[in-house]
Description:
The structure is a homodimer.
Chain A: H1 5-29, E1 42-44, E2 51-53, E3 66-76, H2 88-106, E4 109-119, H3 126-142, E5 145-153, E6 158-168, E7 183-187, H4 192-201, H5 215-218, H6 224-231, E8 242-245, H7 250-261, E9 263-268, H8 288-294, E10 301-305, E11 316-317, E12 320-330, E13 340-343, E14 349-352, H9 358-366
Parallel strand pairs in A: 4-5, 9-13
Antiparallel strand pairs in A: 1-2, 3-6, 4-6, 7-10, 7-12, 8-10, 9-12, 11-12, 13-14
Helix pairs in contact in A: 1-3, 2-3, 2-6
Amino acid sequence: MTVPESTVTRAIEAMRSESAIIERISRGLANSRPFRYKVDRVRLGIGDDAAVIRAGFLARGVLGSDDLVLSCDAFLENIHFLAKVHPPEAIGYKALARATSDLAAMGATPQFFMLALALPPSRTGAWLDSLIKGMARAAREFGMTLIGGDTSENATAIMNMTVGGEVAAGHALTRSGARPGDGIYVSGTLGAAQLGLELVSRGLHRDRRWKRLLEQHLRPKIQLELGKWLAGDRIRHSIASAATDTSDGLSTDLTHICEASGVSARIFAAQIPVVSLPTSLARHRFDPLELARHGGEDYQLLFTVPAAHKHRIPKSFYGAPITKIGEILHAKSGRGASSIELVGTDGKKTRLVPRGWDSFRVASRGSKR
Amino acid sequence: MTVPESTVTRAIEAMRSESAIIERISRGLANSRPFRYKVDRVRLGIGDDAAVIRAGFLARGVLGSDDLVLSCDAFLENIHFLAKVHPPEAIGYKALARATSDLAAMGATPQFFMLALALPPSRTGAWLDSLIKGMARAAREFGMTLIGGDTSENATAIMNMTVGGEVAAGHALTRSGARPGDGIYVSGTLGAAQLGLELVSRGLHRDRRWKRLLEQHLRPKIQLELGKWLAGDRIRHSIASAATDTSDGLSTDLTHICEASGVSARIFAAQIPVVSLPTSLARHRFDPLELARHGGEDYQLLFTVPAAHKHRIPKSFYGAPITKIGEILHAKSGRGASSIELVGTDGKKTRLVPRGWDSFRVASRGSKR
């Protein structure tokens, strides 16, 4: 077994253009942060073997210290996006947004990111420039600095994002703090991103009437301010007992909270803030509740709040509605102890099984494709 | 344009088996650290939206604080390894070793890592178990804890490693500190990994006589202890003025130091610790000096030392020889200011151009393939 010549040649060409690509990434993402509101934590950024963060500055003596929050997320062509369908600017924006949504779910303030990028040579020109532009826009919005990365050639595009932020020590919002009696809340509307994905998968995304329905799928808004507010800080108590982002779909994400917390949940179909569909889509028979229950990638926050704090939850936060959809119950005994009961609009109770992407398969198989 | 059904189905299957795969990764890499020699920095590890590091513990009051060192590195099938040639255990080991070598090059003590893993479904069984086993061995050796990650399905295997460590504040070894008059040193031998790669690429790797020559290519030894010693700490001064790891090959890596430091360099061919070749390989006409000058992936440390510290450099460190190969000179003027002069065994001076992988192409095109 020999290494195919083409592999070697491709690797060589990648090496040759690597410094040029790094140069463009650095320039395109330089000084992404709009302003530096605190002492800069980055001692050494891109251009060396690794980045250096002044962890000492995170500890602020008598005022207490901050924790560092880290997450990584792969964004892969043909799995998470399609180069022929999705604009590169949206791919770049979404790559950073979906990774940073995990920081929002922890209540952390984003600080920096690293980008491990692999690309086919055919997409190292204008396509890459648009990708960088979209990513730079996300970095500015979230207040993040590029501190490092890695570039390589590959047959398909790969973006691996490592994101870092900070939260007051001990204030990170975990999935494991939900207790019986806590209310279950969600921000924004659910099913919007799934609707966008299904419009794309059914080839309906080029119809101008439905263009705005693609936004949450293409350029998801993430809930950073809400996450920070729910986590509190050393002056202000935490409001939420548990939180996660709706990346896999309500049924799966709420199951994560229930399993991590060792509790069950009851939610009410009539209270779920489902995506609203224009009448022009009527004949395509989308089911908003189905989209909301199992559709992924909304990047809203799903969180639980103890009864003592419920009066502090506003109707909306930075423009996004906040809706109570149910309550946390004691765990049942035996298998499926962390189950979710869905009370239908007719009052009928069913079990909500975590299905995430499965609903998409069911929906698309039921369609005319 | 519609999303291909196969893409959707594959994504669904990946989601279904995802929790099972995460469970196996967690179990296989749990408690990788052999002992906890300091207060544990990981407040929250795998299983939530992100990991939480107690940055406050990195700052230790009157004794000064530590900096956090972060790096990321993609290890891609068909680009960096071949699933049909390389054993999965070696792939797992090398994925973490090559990323952690960047921490060695900064003088940092490794602490934690995140793994973003994408795999074809056909390799989620025994292949994955071997991969995890190799990675767990590396994690134990380096003293690292898995704190998070991401799993996905993909047509080829992808490992994105994010590694983190710590170094005494301000002690990180950068590429930019080399000054005229500093000696240039390298650990170990150069060209060993390139030789292994070329044996593989020429289909010679299955010959038992040459099995041991594959080791640095398959399971590279990295120079963590040397890096830490060169960086010093708050009690002990730094010894090296600049450092990097030999991941791209001597010609390229030394160019990185020269460019970052704004200096030139002179190295002596006779002093380069080239890989030694067994006589059994004679007819394959490998050129040890060529392998050493441009061959990548040795993961040795290349570093510069001010004349005042040269008496402190031992002949070997933890079993690896330390060799002085040249000296740092003032930058020349104009283009190519950071050039490298190579003094041949005959005393003839030539310019060493950064070629990295290029030499491999030249070498392999010159071979019988």
